[in-house]
Write a structure and sequence with these properties.
43 residues; 1 helix; 0% strand
């Protein structure tokens, strides 16, 4: 049972890392879109 539990914990940690990566990528994309919009307004 303890082995199963530690395996679950590892899976959860990997899952959290994937979520953090996805959030960071989304933040970068929205930042780029904001910059593009500012450029468009400047033109």
């Amino acid at each position: 049972a303890s082995l199963d539990f530690s395996a679950d914990v590892n899976q959860v940690e990997e899952f959290n890392e994937e979520i953090q990566k996805a959030i960071a990528e989304d933040a970068e994309e929205s930042g780029e879109e904001r910059r593009r919009r500012k450029r468009r307004h400047a033109l």
